[in-house]
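Quick start: what a row looks like.
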Amino acid sequence: MADKIIRVLLVDDHQVVRRGLRTFLEIQDDIEVVGEAADGAEGVARTEELRPDVVLMDIKMPGTDGIEALRKLRELENPAKVLIVTSFTEQRTVVPALRAGASGYVYKDVDPDALAGAIRSVHAGHVLLQPEVAGALLAQEDAGSGTGRGNTLTEREREVLSLIADGRSNREIARALVLSEKTVKTHVSNILMKLDLSDRTQAALWAVRHGVAG
């Protein structure tokens, strides 16, 4: 069994979907489903209560939907990674969820092994973006936003930013640059502050747009 068990919360208004997701995940040695919630409001409350590592969140739910739940979790500065599980393929649905703080998304008909891989990936700090959605996010950015701010980054911060854009986790960045994870976290915080960005997804997109990505 893996040394680190990834604790997962399921948030979906359809019980049959939650049951299916649980069935998929219970056969994984390194993933534990610690709870379920039937809507966004309950999902936020359960995330605060259970402190899971990863939340599998539906977008379309009655009452508080997935996007609003994401915003509330960001306001609470909850550290859980949120992976959107959706049947909606429209960019207009997925893009707002990513902007609200999701680490990526998968579709409800995803292969079980691919779902487990996605959970492991976002838990490790990666951002799961398909090319067309990344393009839509970039297209919505203000073309001039943050361009001059890039000049305030140190050379080391630009190296860290390039690795963020490459999908590396803090641990992987630390290994690549021979730094401690604590030092990498400080660099990431400084990058977000200097570029006036709220999360790693925006940082990765900024790096691609402004030619910092490797």
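That is the whole record. The radius of gyration is 17 Å. The longest helix spans residues 181-195.
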